[in-house]
């Protein structure tokens, strides 16, 4: 493999796999597109939604600026994601208040 061309090689590898082709067909049936870059999108989404990592941390881990990160990935931040984030923040706040009350 030539230096700097790893994604091309990996993309060719995936295109030759039956499972990848099956996944691509499933996505296309849903009106979506599955490409190698989808792995980065999935990483960013899970880092925020599952791990609750802030954009600055995820952007640094992915090797780009916060501005680039928000421009590329904010489109997946729908009302459901916002509502869930505030619900989790409310739970953390409630736990913090209870912890302070019991310590006093």
Descriptive report:
This protein is an all-alpha fold and 104 residues long. It has six helices and no strands. The chain is elongated. The N and C termini lie far apart (62 Å). The model has no long low-confidence stretch (mean pLDDT 85).
Summary tags:
6 helices; about 100 residues; mainly alpha; elongated
Q: How many E-type strands?
A: 0
What are the secondary-structure elements, in order, as H or E? HHHHHH
Unreliable stretches covering 5 or more consecutive residues: none
The major pleated sheet works out as: none
Assign the structural class, choosing from mainly alpha, mainly beta, alpha/beta, alpha+beta, or little secondary structure: mainly alpha
- Oligomer state of the chains in this structure: single chain
Summarize the structure.
The protein has helices at residues 6-15, 18-29, 38-49, 55-62, 66-73, 79-103. With 104 residues, it is mostly helical. It has a domain at 1-36.
Helix/strand layout:
Layout: H1 6-15, H2 18-29, H3 38-49, H4 55-62, H5 66-73, H6 79-103
């Amino acid at each position: 493999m030539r230096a700097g061309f790893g994604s091309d090689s990996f993309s060719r590898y995936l295109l030759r796999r039956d499972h990848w082709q099956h996944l691509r067909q499933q996505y296309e049936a849903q009106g979506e597109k599955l490409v190698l870059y989808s792995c980065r999108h999935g990483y960013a989404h899970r880092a925020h939604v599952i791990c609750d990592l802030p954009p600055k941390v995820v952007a640094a881990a992915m090797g780009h600026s916060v501005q680039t990160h928000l421009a590329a990935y904010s489109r997946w931040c729908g009302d459901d994601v916002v509502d869930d984030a505030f619900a989790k923040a409310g739970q953390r706040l409630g736990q913090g208040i209870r912890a302070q009350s019991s310590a006093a």
